[in-house]
Amino acid sequence: MTVLLLGGTGEARALAAALVAADVDVVSSLAGRVARPALPEGRTRVGGFGGVDGLVAWLRQHRVDAVVDATHPFAATISANAVAACSAAGVPLLRLARPGWGSRPDAATWRWVDDTGEAATVAADLGGGVLLTTGRQGLEAFVPALRDASVVARVVDPPEVALPPSWTVLQDRGPYTLEGETELLRTRGVRVLVTKDSGGALTSAKLDAAAALGVAVVVVRRPDRSGAPSVATVHEAVTWVLTRVTGPR
After folding, report:
1. CATH top-level class of 105-220
2. pLDDT, tens digit, 9 for 90 and up, residues 152-209
3. β-pairing, 216-220 with 25-30?
């Protein structure tokens, strides 16, 4: 059996390791947007497929038996392509999506928005120093509303666009600690934290720090990822794959 794992997340790496340990042939596909990605166990490929048609061709050429989409919660394009391609190729598809942060007790106090443009407008209206933790993709959407604001843009790799002089780029990679996030918010004079509802524990300390310091939080909702059955844990994804190898247990 060959499984295509659309990866790039910690959950994808954990799933790849579990499937390799179970003697499943896994090919992890990485988008190639991070300069030094953490590589999973098993075989890997880097780069796009060329849209839905390219992915269909790849699935057929490599005789893929199942696909697990464990990409970032905001990687909407590849997820939509996976739904369409798997339907066309007749390949079972599962979405592995870690839970978002919406169940946190403080989530009711956040400003929830639908996209980065709206997040920029809300952050500008709130006023004060801003910490952007939405990633380097789409930073330009924040520039019009926050051009003259004091902004710290935290990214893993350098931004691909020119940013205003009042902005500071902070290159860093999680996991983050409560102590470190609290110090960052304090020393940078942050009054507004802007993030996406990425979920997980690796980057959630900023939310704890914001709650403790009274920092306003603006959260971009997840895009619609319907069209495939979904599970929330690596264990459930392993069970789904192994059921296709051995049949129902």
Report:
1. alpha beta
2. 999 998 998 899 999 999 999 889 999 999 999 999 999 999 999 999 888 999 999 9
3. unpaired
Class of domain 2-99+224-246: alpha beta
Between 25-34, 115-124, 177-186, 212-221, the lowest mean confidence (pLDDT) is in 25-34
Whole-Å CA distances, 61 to 83, 110, 140, 165, 237: 18, 47, 38, 49, 24
Question: What are the structural domain ranges in the chain?
Answer: 2-99+224-246, 105-220
* d(C-alpha 67, C-alpha 209), whole Å: 37
Do the domains at 2-99+224-246 and 105-220 have one common CATH topology? yes
Cβ atoms of 81 and 55 closer than 8 Å: yes
Backbone angles phi and psi of 15, in degrees to 5: -65, -45
